[in-house]
Amino acid sequence: MKIVKSEVVARIAMVMALLALPGAVRAQTTPTVTGTDDPVYRERLSVYASDYSKFVYDPMERVAGAADWRPLAATAKPAFSPSSLQAVQDYARRMNSSALIVWHKGKIALEWYGDGTGRTSELVSKSLSKPLSAIAVGRAIALGKIASLDQPISDFIPELKGTQKGRIHVRHLLDMRSGMQQQTFTTEADSPLNLGFLSPDFGHHIIADYPMVAEPGSVYAYANAPADLVAEVIERATGRRYAQFVSDEVFKPIGALGGAFWDGREGGLAHSGCCMTLPAETFLRLGVLLLHDGAWHGKRLLPEGYVTQMHTGTPQNPHFGLGVWVGSPYQKRRGFGAPGAPGPQVLHSEPYLDPDLYLFDGNSDQIVDISPANDLIVLRMGENPPRPTAESPQEWDNSYLVNTLIRGLAAAGKPVPSGK
After folding, report:
1. Domains of the chain, with CATH numbers?
2. What tens digit of pLDDT does each residue of 221-232 get?
3. 334-343 pLDDT, tens digit each
4. pTM for the whole thing?
5. Are the beta carbons of 270 and 157 closer than 8 angstroms?
6. In what order do the strands lie in the sheet with 97-104?
7. What is the largest CA-CA distance in the chain?
8. What is the DSSP string of 182-194?
């Protein structure tokens, strides 16, 4: 592949810019061995390629939550029929869940945890991290650190100026229209896709080497790389480490428990697109924040109208907004990739009973359903549900929990709005 002089200059500028990051943001602990020869990278790739279930997220950076944390209020008289509450709890148990929380009109109506898990247990988030990264961006906009969703990332990563990657807008990192290659599986050690996820300096590889396949904003392509690049943008825009920014500006203001973020290396960049560990209740609070249009107890944390943009799809994928999935229009099986693309498909056995529903949705069928019409949030976290078999044919159904509960409101004689 021919490399022109301008590309060499750009890469030198990129390295210089990375080294110039303030010490308070990024520790100056550059590994002595980098790229495909890095033994840490090699070990991670070996496990990733052979059995990802054994993958260990290490190192983890502690992220402080609210010092005065108190559990969210619970109700002694849920508005749902008892049979509906029992049905969703039984379903969660059958589906290898670790946590199930039902929040309705300001109070918790049901809180259940699997064996060995409790209210403060930190669970692996997987792609539930992506909507958190969108909330972090919204908070940075509210603070004036980012001008708008349509600001090019080259404003924060100047080594990308004049490149196609530099034309990516902040919005495109969140709605998966960055133009970067979609996520695929490969065992090749020199693959920029693996280096951009598993390398101790994964952020450097995303900026320098992760392939662009389309003009930003033109196609939808789901991947961890653009979501992980959010942490880089936040750090450069705010002068704070991603973990510190999320702690100070998101977790503490909503009274949430903290947890840990996976860093590429000690003092390195945090993965903002996946793999952090947080209690289920923290993700529930994020759902409450969105349900209340980005305000917490009357204090606005996100710009007015930002949440609406989060749950508004794009022409390239009407089911995906800014890190958030959109429930309508109905699609029985919906994948994480582009509409119509091959790959795993999540079952929705019926349309959501609230057509305005939106949700967080991560690997292993981890969900946070948000139903504005019913002032209802339903959270499920845990391991992969059992695979359907001839003896037990039931598969995970994304619409089951929330629709069962909405019907449970009707069965209990409560009015059930139908949405807009």
Report:
1. 57-411 (3.40.710.10)
2. 999 999 999 999
3. 999 999 888 8
4. 0.92
5. no
6. 107-113, 97-104, 376-382, 366-371, 358-362, 325-326
7. 72
8. PP-----TT-HHH
